[in-house]
Design a protein that fits this description.
By secondary structure, this protein is an alpha/beta fold. The protein has one domain: TIM Barrel (Alpha-Beta Barrel). The protein is built from eleven helices and twelve strands. The chain has an eight-stranded parallel β-barrel, surrounded by seven helices. Helix 2 links the parallel strand 4 and strand 5. It is globular.
Amino acid sequence: MLKVRVIPTLLWKNVGLVKGISFDSWRRVGTIMPAIKVYNTRDVDELIVVDITATNENREPDYDSVEEFSAECFVPLTVGGGIRALEHIRNLLCVGADKVSINSAAYTNPELVSQAANRFGSQCIVASIDAQRMPDGSYECFSHSGTCPAGREPSAWARELERHGAGEILITSIERDGTMQGYDIELIQRVTESVTIPVIASGGAGNYQHMFDAITKAKPSAVAAASIFHFTEQTPLGAKRFLGERNIPVRNINSVQSYMDVGAMLSER
């Protein structure tokens, strides 16, 4: 089993960070630069930053801001929001993004994923899928920050995105988002079983056990989370310690162990 990544997600709206429930992101939780500086010290594997208003406002990514905060980010950085053209992707990569997340634009122009993978490499193209369980028990994809039904079933859409060259799939449960009630295991499993590329699970983490359950039952390559790190005392390092103690291979395990050793030494003094 490959090492599982723990990835905080930062939802960026105007000049601040926000979080809510089921994509209703109304609650301000700080500003982006201090958050990135904190995560630099907490053994995160990667960061995902999404400008949640760019697409609905029909504007390009804010390259100046990305350049500013990417200069302070010392882990791989994925940036999403407002990406509709190859030029947008090129500009984001030039100002410091390591990967880009494409969501809404792919529904109307799936060739954008193909062109981006051919031009920049699949390894930096993350295809993002926001999905919701419908009354009949099926799942449907939504675009534009979860506001527009896309008429696609998530696992089938994930397969199509993989065929177009996406290097990873980020699957988010809209109704679980921000609830801290646990990931939608069925949704994640449907997607992981439909593709061969890595899948990042998102939406619903409220404690470390939720991450463990998602990893062991649905087999994603990474778990992403936001509210658990904003509103509780749980940390990415704590998540890795919990997972590592349960035989889940995690990245930077030597670093995690060193923190434990240092803590034990200090407590003995």
